[in-house]
Amino acid sequence: MNQKFLDFLHNNKLEFKVVDFPESTRTAADAAATLGCDIAQIAKSIIFKSGNGEAVLVITSGVNRVDIAKIEIIIDFPVSKADADFVKAETLYTIGGVPPFAFEKSIRTIIDEDLMQYQVIWAAAGTPNSVFSLTPMDLVRMTKAPVYEVKV
Length: 152
Fold this sequence. Notes:
The protein has helices at residues 3-11, 28-35, 68-75, 84-91, 136-143, and strands at 18-20, 42-50, 55-61, 79-81, 108-112, 121-124, 130-134, 147-148.
């Protein structure tokens, strides 16, 4: 378990239940297989680096690939996929465990509209083998992020 993520939940009186697994939930496919859910219900947190050097978080359905051109139009900056060092520096989490919220600083966030069709979705909880469930509306409420079509 990631104590920083758990502390964020506790300090904000959030009752999302974090589940740890002995096996990896690092990828959407791993998480779906472990949870026994549809891969599309996995909310992948993907960090991009914008042309102005800021992190941009795109939370997308586990089956989707993000269309970088669409992200660039939304934020009005060029973007590139961030490397592991940038992700860790900006989020304080490692790739495969980046949650959709609970960062020490504000990170511009965009949510994939495809996640909105599910009653329950699953997201990383700070480590590559921990997840938590939430509703798409919980995700919007917690991130205060806009919802867009972002898939290729």
